[in-house]
Amino acid sequence: MGWVQKVSRAGYYALLALPDAFAPTGVRARVTRRVFRSRFELQEPGAGRAAAHSILAAAVGLIAWFAVFLAALAAVRGVLYPVVAAHEYQNSWGGPTLAGAWAVHAVLAVGLLPLWWFLVAGLGVLQLRLTQRLLGRTGPWWPIPVAVLLFLGGIAVFIAWLHQI
Questions:
Q1: 98-111 and 113-134 are packed helices; what angle lies between their axes, rounded to 10 degrees?
Q2: How large is the angle between the packed helices 46-79 and 113-134, nearest 10 degrees?
Q3: What is the dihedral angle through the alpha carbons of 139, 144, 147, 151, rounded to the nearest 10 degrees?
Q4: Could you tell me the pTM of the whole model?
Q5: Pairwise CA distance, residues 86 & 81, whole Å
Q6: What's the average model confidence in pLDDT over 11-20?
Q7: For the chain, first and last CA: distance in Å?
Q8: Lesser CB count within 10 Å: N end or C end of the chain?
Q9: How far apart are CA 152 and CA 91, in angstroms?
Q10: In whole angstroms, what separates CA 74 from the centre of its chain?
């Protein structure tokens, strides 16, 4: 499997994390096997591990969907720059002409989309490691504190984003 396919599968898995977090553990294992086309077996996770996985998977899934929302918002705003912020183009990137400002914003908005997708794919890898640790009882311990810290950081970014709009 090529790296593009791996990144695509990981990004897809990150977006599935939110609805998958509320599914029975058997369904979560099946989704993991099907998305990554690899072997994954449940190892009697128990109610506590299943609940912890639900909470952390939902948290990672929310962050993934928020990242997709921000990427889409940035792309639309960049491509439609003259409609969104045409009155401020003299002092913006690419200014002082509207054509220059539009070109710079559009190129940046579309050009940064792959980086956004790599971010979402990274969240998918974190989601996979969480599933392996909590439901499969294998893998490293680090995804649990990373998911908690990432969610707290995501809350801070969301609050900051709300205050700037």
A1: 20
A2: 180
A3: 170
A4: 0.86
A5: 7
A6: 90
A7: 41
A8: C
A9: 35
A10: 15
